[in-house]
Amino acid sequence: MEKPREWLREKSIAKKILSEANVIFEVVDARIPLKTRNKVVEQLAKERNKKVFIIINKTDLVPESFVQKAKNIIEKEHPVVLFSAHRKTGKKEIEKIIKELSKEKKVIKIGVLGYPNVGKSSLINTLKRKKVATTSPKPGMTRGEKLIKLDKNVYLIDTPGIITLEFQDELAIKGSWIPDKLEDPVDVAVKLLEKIIQNRPEAIEEAYGVKPVDDPFKTLEKIGEKLNYRISGGTIDIERTAKKILWDWIKGNIKAYWL
After folding, report:
1. Which letter, b or e, does each residue of 19-35 get, where b requires 16 or more Cβ atoms within 10 Å of its Cβ?
2. pTM for the whole thing?
3. What total number of domains does the chain contain?
4. Measured distance CA(25)–CA(73) in Å, rounded
5. 61, CA 20 to 30 Å: which among 32, 118, 157, 253?
6. 215 lies in the same domain as 142
7. Residue 165 is assigned to a structural domain of this protein
8. Which pLDDT does position 131 carry in this prediction?
9. Pairwise CA distance, residues 120 & 116, whole Å
């Protein structure tokens, strides 16, 4: 039985950021906004009396009605901003929050936290108006925390993705684990397809031109057939198909979403 991965390094980074920052911007993925909230980090922030703003990023990938529903749920606990680095929406609202915060203190440090691949670097680059943080669809591209000057007295703390005590497959479904590093990508892709079939099956047809069936493994085979991924002897290359689906999910090519 696979053990949840240790998160000692991330825990020490999270605690360091939480002690240095006056306020936290937690970035979540609009496609799975509740699943990409890091409750452990939120609890650590609460214990330290640090205000948390939830930035729902990638709102361009989901319908407005869906993201509003997510916002209404999260707002019961924390203020929420709807943001899209791609469309630059929500930028003015975030800048207004920063302006208000900077009135309260001489120097303001904002810790930008979240799972890998939720778009922390894209948020920072949008606010800074230039590329200062590494962006990549590959989870885990930010290596160490960096202090980025936004204004005279305002700093952003860019951090590596904070992963808590979770299993690889859970992280992969959150788009926070590189598919090539998975022990069993097929099993994870089947779990992801199951979620998509339950919540928005048409996303599979939109992405691959394949009508999904109730059985996620059979759907995986159909996608492999459509992509013509084969191994010697002509059988479907299931593992290659599974990794392709997981990468497409990370890159936002599969337009599915759920709470």
Report:
1. eebbbbbbbbbbbbbeb
2. 0.92
3. 2
4. 17
5. 157
6. no
7. no
8. 65
9. 8
